[in-house]
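Exercise 3.2. Students should predict the tertiary structure of the chain below and write it as structure tokens, then compare their answer with the key that follows.

Predict this chain's 3D structure.
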Amino acid sequence: MTPLLETVDVCCERDDRLLVENLCLHVEQGGIYQIEGPNGSGKTTLLRALCGLSSRYTGEIRWRGEPVKKVRMDYLSQLLYIGHSSGVKAALTPRENLAWHGAIKTDATQKTDHAIEAALEKVGLYGYEDVPCFTLSAGQQRRVGLARLFLVPAQLWVLDEPFTAIDKQGVAELEGWIEEFASNGGAVILTTHHQLAIAQSVQHIRLGNL
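Answer key:
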């Protein structure tokens, strides 16, 4: 079966230093893949290359067997990337942030508002839709970013340190969402320093020892 996402001899550089060398990764539907390595090993650099945010790599990235460069729009439409920062604009409300991110389709305003409210309720922020994000805690701001996971369908989640700033309950909830997404046919690539309780479901990819 053709992998959902595949890398062929991918090498990544940063500041003229080779961080990732000849990575051949096969990401299947239903899979959870944890990219591991010490700080500075290239985890974020690799994720940015996979998401089309960096062109500083050699080799080939394929989506459903086709080079990403040929099917870029289809690939990006099925990809959801959340970086290690919350990505939240402090002066905007959670509702405005989600709309600004362009994470929902351009349907009628009423349907858009309903989707945002449902996503914020999912992440425990019901009632906070219209307050400025600078009044929220760091954990709540992280949850605003994570609400993007529930706005539009995607097949691939790429998450860079998604557990940052959230409490023990939030960690358990996010692990559950990741596992549920994968069990429904999605795929997840993530980095984290957190010890995952769902470790038995995770395939580990260690940079520097590929």
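Discussion points: DSSP finds six helices and nine strands in the chain. The chain has two domains: 1-78+154-210, 86-153.
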